[in-house]
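Researcher: I'm comparing several assemblies side by side, and this is the next one on my list. It has 1484 residues spread over four chains. Same procedure as the others: predict the full complex and return the structure.
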Amino acid sequence: MTTVDQPGLDPALADPALADLHRGFAAEHLVPLWTEVGDLMPAHPRSQACAHLWRWNRLLELADRAGHLVPVGRGGERRALALANPGLPGRPFATPTIWAAIQYLMPHEDAPEHRHSQHAFRFVVEGHGVATVVEGDPVAMRRGDFLPQAGLNRHAHHNTADRPMAWIDGLDIPLQYALDTQFFDVGRDAISAAERVLPPRSRSEKLWGHPGLTPVGHRSQRPGSPLLAYRWEHTDAALTDQLELQRTGHPGTVEPGHALVRFTDPRTGGDALPTIRAQFHRIARGVTTAPRRETGSSVYQVFDGSGLVRVGESTWSVTRGDLFVVPSWQAVSVTSQAGASDSDSGALDLFQFGDAPVLHRLGLFRSEVDA
Amino acid sequence: MTTVDQPGLDPALADPALADLHRGFAAEHLVPLWTEVGDLMPAHPRSQACAHLWRWNRLLELADRAGHLVPVGRGGERRALALANPGLPGRPFATPTIWAAIQYLMPHEDAPEHRHSQHAFRFVVEGHGVATVVEGDPVAMRRGDFLPQAGLNRHAHHNTADRPMAWIDGLDIPLQYALDTQFFDVGRDAISAAERVLPPRSRSEKLWGHPGLTPVGHRSQRPGSPLLAYRWEHTDAALTDQLELQRTGHPGTVEPGHALVRFTDPRTGGDALPTIRAQFHRIARGVTTAPRRETGSSVYQVFDGSGLVRVGESTWSVTRGDLFVVPSWQAVSVTSQAGASDSDSGALDLFQFGDAPVLHRLGLFRSEVDA
Amino acid sequence: MTTVDQPGLDPALADPALADLHRGFAAEHLVPLWTEVGDLMPAHPRSQACAHLWRWNRLLELADRAGHLVPVGRGGERRALALANPGLPGRPFATPTIWAAIQYLMPHEDAPEHRHSQHAFRFVVEGHGVATVVEGDPVAMRRGDFLPQAGLNRHAHHNTADRPMAWIDGLDIPLQYALDTQFFDVGRDAISAAERVLPPRSRSEKLWGHPGLTPVGHRSQRPGSPLLAYRWEHTDAALTDQLELQRTGHPGTVEPGHALVRFTDPRTGGDALPTIRAQFHRIARGVTTAPRRETGSSVYQVFDGSGLVRVGESTWSVTRGDLFVVPSWQAVSVTSQAGASDSDSGALDLFQFGDAPVLHRLGLFRSEVDA
Amino acid sequence: MTTVDQPGLDPALADPALADLHRGFAAEHLVPLWTEVGDLMPAHPRSQACAHLWRWNRLLELADRAGHLVPVGRGGERRALALANPGLPGRPFATPTIWAAIQYLMPHEDAPEHRHSQHAFRFVVEGHGVATVVEGDPVAMRRGDFLPQAGLNRHAHHNTADRPMAWIDGLDIPLQYALDTQFFDVGRDAISAAERVLPPRSRSEKLWGHPGLTPVGHRSQRPGSPLLAYRWEHTDAALTDQLELQRTGHPGTVEPGHALVRFTDPRTGGDALPTIRAQFHRIARGVTTAPRRETGSSVYQVFDGSGLVRVGESTWSVTRGDLFVVPSWQAVSVTSQAGASDSDSGALDLFQFGDAPVLHRLGLFRSEVDA
C-alpha cells in the first residue's frame, strides 16, 4: 500500500486479483481512497496554482491591440484578458477561486449592461474617464479607486474620454464555477443619456461615503457594500495616518513600516464583498515585511513604487502595474526599494485581493508568520 | 376582582376573610397579581416618564452659576446638571433608561480621570476649546460633534480655552442602575502635559475616520465605537447629500424633507454605543414629520433652526439648545419653522439619543407611524 | 463636595448662594450629579434588592386559602402570589428584573386566555394535572417540568384533576416595566373541548423534542423556544449523566460534585427565553459549591433534597420548595446536606432562573468565583 | 464574437491579426473572456457533474472483495471506495464539493488514528459492531445512526464484531481540495484497550444527547457538533411524529406525506457540520414529492423502502442502500412505492447529505419548487 506522502507504484498492476478488483472499481465508477489519499489529504495545502508574475506593460500592450481588433458587444460582453495561472489546467483562473483580468475600453466605447451572481470589483492603477453605471448610478473610475460591484447588480461601462482606459477586474468566477452557483442575465443594450453624464460623486457615495454615518433611510438589502467607490484620496490618507501614528509612538500599523487598510461594507464592517477581500498595503522605504502564509489565495497589483517580492520559492523585482499571485500556504514577503528619483517617498503601495472571506465564513482560514 | 384597566377598590378592605388573607400575604412578602395586573401589564406601554421640555438658556445660566460656586474634583467628579423627569420619582433620570445632563467647565479647568461601566457620549451644541482625553487620546470637542465614549474607557476633560464651555452628556446610568451592573474606578488625578496639547484630529480619527476603510492593525476589542469623534462637517455633509438626493429624485431620506443619519460603529455598522442610539435629523423648511411612536425613550436637542414639536399631548415651540424628552410609545412629530431672518436655510436640525439598541438587542423594539 | 463612597451633608444647606442655586435647579427639574454620583455610580453593584428566603409551606398555605376565597377570571387573570423583595419599594418584584410567583388552580378550574409581550415560564415543584394551552397546544405540567412560554403566545391554563395544583411562574415583568415595552391582549374566555383533552406529549414536543434533530418544515419564527415542555425525565438523566462522567474521570460537571444544565432553544442553542435564563443544578451529597458572584439577579427554588445556602451575608437551611433570591454581585454558595432518611441520594436539586441573557445581550455580564 | 450561449468558431483561427494576438495572449498566460464567457457565466448553473446511481449490492460486493485483498494501515489509512462522478474529470469526487465512499472493516480489524481539516461523517445503512473512537470517546455505530466527526478531531475505527461491517463516509474533500485548505496529521497507530470497550452510549451523548438541555460545564469550542451520534431511534421517532402531526391536522411536514429532519449542532441549531448538511426524509406510501431544484449538490442513500427517483432527465427505481447524486440546479422528485410485502409501511426513507451550509454561508443558496 502507498504511504501518505510518497505514493509508489500502483500495487494493482502487479497482482492479478488486485488488477481484477480495480477493473471492478472502474466499471462501477469507484476509486479506492488508498491510492489517492496522499494527494487529496496532504499534511498541509499544496496548491496546484503557481506563484506567477504578469508584467503590466505586456498586459497593456496586448489589451491595446485587442482594443483595435476586437469589438465589445453583447455575447462577448467585455474586452477583458484573464490571468491564466500556469499551474491550473483547463480554465483561465488566476487562482483556484479568483478571476483577475485587465479590461480595456476604447474612447467613447460602451460595454453593455448585464448582471450576474458573481461578485466583482474594478481597481484602477492608472487613467480615468470611464464610468461604471451600477443600477443606474454612474460611478467615475479614477487612479487608485476601488469599485466593488456585488453580485446581481446590473452594470454597464462607458468611456467618456477621448483616450482608451484600462483597469483591473476581480471576480469570484472560479469559486462560483466550482460551486455551480452561477446566474447571468443580460440587461439593456445601451445606457441612457442621463447615465452618460458623469458626476464627481456617485449617489452611493452621497448616501454611504461619510465616515461612521449610516443613512437611516437606505434600502440596500443585498449582500455586498452599498458604497460603490472607495476613493484614492481616502485610502491614501488612511495609509499616511497609520504611518504617522507609528512615527509618534502609537499603534496603527500591522508591523513596523507596514500600513494596511481593508475595504469594508459600512453596513457591517465586514469585507466589501461576500467572497472577496480587498486591501491596500503601504510599505515604507527600505522595509521588508515578515513572511506570512495563509490558507487561500491572493492577487496583488503594484500601485506605486518598486520593490522585491518573494512568494514561496519565487523572487521578482516589481514595479507599477505588475500583478502577481500568491497561492495558498505559500509565504509572501515584500521589500520596498526606493527608485532612481530622489523625489519619491520610496514607499511601495500594493493593492491586494483574495478569497479570505470565503475561508473565514467556512471556518477554514488559518495563517502563520514565519519567525 | 378588579378589571385590567380600571382597578377598583381593593376587595380586601370589605371582606374580613380577604382582609385576613391579605395580612397573611403582607407578612410573607407576597403580593397578589390580581390587584396589580392592570398597572404591570397594560395593553400598551404607559410610561411614568413625562414628555417634558428644558430651555437651553435656563440650563446654561444655572450651569454658569454652578461654575462660579462649585469646584470640580475627585468625589463629585463632574460639574453636570441632570435633567430630572418630573414623572420619575426618586432619581434624576431624563427617561427610565437615559441620563442627560449639561456639563460645564470653567476656563482652563480639568475634570479628573475615571472610568465606569456606563456608556456615555458628549454632544456639543455650541462652543469649543475642551478636550476629552480618552485612554490618553486628546479629542477636541467642537460645535456639532458627537463624541462617544464607551464603558470602561478611562477619560478626563480639560478646557484649553479662556472661556467656559458647556455640552451635553448622555449616559445609560438609569439602565445600569436598574440592572445593577455598575462598576467605577477613579483614574489619575491629573492628565499629563502632552495630553493637554490638543491636535486637530484625535488618534482615533486617524485610524477609524476614513469612510469604508478598516485599519487591519487595530487592536480595539471593547464594545462601543473606536471612533471617538464624529465631526460636524461630515454629519452636515451627509444630511445635505440626503436632501439633494431627494431633490434629484433618488431615495435617501426617511420621508419627504426629512434627512436622518445614525452614528455607527465602523467595526460593525451597529450603533456607536451598545445601549445608546444617537442620530441626527434635518427637517427641511416647512416640513412636518409623520407622527411616529416607538417602544423606548429618547431625548432630543435642537441643534439649529426653530420649530414646533408635538410629543403625545404636549406641544412646544423650540429653538437652539432646547432639550425635550419623548417617553415610550408617545408619538412625536416635528415641524420646521423658518426664523425671522431670510438668510437661514429654514431647516430644523435635531440631535436625538435614546435606548433603541437595548430594545433591539432584547427583541422588544416596536414602532408605528400614525396614518 | 461629597466623596464617591461617603456622601456627607448636602453643602447646599449651609451656603446661602448654594442653597439659592439648588432652588434654581429644583425649579428647572435639574439635579446636580455631584450629590448623586456615589449612589448612581458605585465601585461595584450594590443592589437595593435583598437576599431573601420564602418558605414553600407558607406560600402553599396562603395560595390554598386564596383558592377558596378568590375566583380566577378576566381582569385579575391569574391566581398568582408574587414574591415581593423587601428591598424593592413600590412594586412586587422578586428582583429588579424578575417576577416570581406561586400560581394556584382549584380542581377543574380554568385561567382565561391572554397574551403579553412579557416572557414567561412555569416550573412545577410538585403535583400534576394542569395543562397550559399555548397557541392551542395543550401541554401537561408535571413535577420537574420546565415550561417556557415566550412573549406574545396566547395561553390559558386548565386543571384537569380533582385536586388543586400549584406551580411557579417566572416572568420578566419588572424588566419590561422598567423599559416600558409592555403589550397585553385578552384572548378567548374559554378554551375548546378539544383543548381540554390532555395528550401525554404536546405537539411542540413532537416537533422539537428529539435531540439534535430540527424539523425542516417548522414555521416558528418568534423569539423564544418552540419547545414548550422540558420534561423532568430528560433533565434528571442529563444531571445523572454529568455526575457519572465525573465519576469515570471525564469532563462534564461545572465543578466537582456540581452538575448543571441550561434550558435552551433548540433553534439557536441560546437561552430558552430571550430575557430569562433557566438552569437546573444537582449538588452531590456533602458538596459545597464555590462562592460565585455575577452581575444580574436570580431566583432559586429547591426541587429536592435539603441543604445550606449562603447568599452575601445571609445563611439559610432550605428544603423542598423553598425559594430564595440572589441579588446582583452577591456571592452564592450551596451545600448539600443529606436528610434523615438513608434512602435518599443526598443530592440537592435546585432550579434557578435569572436575567443573565439580558446582561449578555447588552454586554454587561460579569462573573467572579471567590478564591 | 461568440454569443453567450452558443460559442461558435474561434474567430482567431480565421484572421491572421487575431491569430497573432491570441498567440500573444498565450505567451503571456492570458485568455480572453469573450471566448469563455458562455461557459464561465451561464444563465443558470450547468454542472459538469452528472446525475448518477450506484447500486448498493455492487458496492458491497466490491468492498468485500477489497476486504479480503487489501489490508488497512498507515499510509492508505482507510479501506474506502469513493463514488467517482462520471462527469467530473480527474479526481474521484461524487459531486464538485462532496466525497462519498463505502468504508469496510473486516472482523476485529482497526483503521489507524488520524485527524484532518476535512469535515466528515459516517452513516450506517446496515450492520453494527464497529466503534469510531473520536478524541478517545468510543462511539458505537448501528443501522440508522448518523455520526458526524468534524474537522481536526482525532479518530480511529475498530470492528468489535465477528462479521465485516460496511458504512458510508461523507466528507468535504473536494471542497477543501478546491480551496487548498487541507491539513492532515497521523495519530496513534493503535487505540488503547479501554477504548476497545464499547459502551451503549458515548460520552458525547451523555453530555449533549438530552433534548433542549445544554451542559453548562462543556468545553467544546471547535466548529462542528459535539454530539457524535444521532441515533436511529430518535430520527425514526421524529419522522413518525411529523407524519402523525400531519394526520391530526397540524403543521410539521415539509409537504403532504413528506417528513424531513435535519441533523443539527445543539450548541447553535445550525448544521451538524460547517460544510455539510445531513437530513433524513420519510416519504409516505404512494406520495410523490414536488420537483425541487437548489444550488449546490447532494448525495442520497435509500435507507428503507423502495421507490422511483427523478433527477433532471434521469429516472431510476431504487431500493435499500442505493446511492444517487443530485447535481446543482437539477430538479429532484421522489415517489414512494410499496414493496411486495403487505407488512411494510410502504414509506421510503432517504438519507441525504450535501453542501448547502457552504452556499448559505456564502450567500449563494437559491432554491425553486417547480409548479
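Model: For your comparison table: Residues 1-43 of chain C form one domain.
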